[in-house]
Amino acid sequence: xxxxxxxxxxxxxxxxxxxxxxxxxxxxxxxxRAAFALRRSQxxxxxxxxxxxxxxxxxxxxxxxxxxxxxxxxxxxRKGDGERLVDMRSWVRRGNMLTGFDREADGLRTFRADRIAxxxxxxxxxxxxxIAGAIRGRKGGVKRKAKAMFAKLRTPxxxxxxxxxxxxxxxxxxxxxxxxxxxxFGLKDRVVPDGPETQYPQRELLGFSQADDxxxxxxxxxxxxxxx
Length: 228
What we know:
Protein name: Phage virion morphogenesis protein
Number of helices: 4
Low-confidence stretches: 127-144
Helix content: 25-40%
Radius of gyration: 26 Å
Order of helices and strands: HHEEEEEEEHEEH
Region (Disordered): 43-69
Strand order of the largest sheet: 4-3-2-1-5
Structural class: alpha+beta
Distance between the termini: 30 Å
Shape: elongated
Oligomer: single chain
Organism: Brevundimonas bullata
């Protein structure tokens, strides 16, 4: 391993001097090719669900499938110093959080069960009783193949590649960077607004491996040979 690293160090020195002698335009075009190649390697690793050193990511925790409750619920919800009516359809409960279509707000909303002041009967109906236990996991259902994590995050729309006259770069867009940072460093975040914080395991999304180093050297050396 040490011999290979010494070889790469020699190549880096040779390539660095070569890049300095290129015109700004040619150097920028070459670094752009390197950036696109590096992005492809990052995308393949994310698709394979492994870190830059080849270690597999921590697996996603299994989550019990849930189907929306068929019955509507109405309740008075405390928020701040006031209260408001909530009329929900097609809702699910996960822990202390209820998510569903709120007819009063005309959109999907999430509520904390411990902030419900009181339950109300559905329009024209009898009191439905407590909501605890209304949601049950589906049993005996067909298991679906788990989707790979961060499928959208690795697309060019969210993972950018480019170059200046001095450097090649691969980065997430500003919109995607917050989510990427949480998972890359294994930080805490809220799954739903106002919900409890969840500790996410570290899953490194971007990194420069020895394979990347060798691929970049090969690309640049090929360019040197072509130019010669």
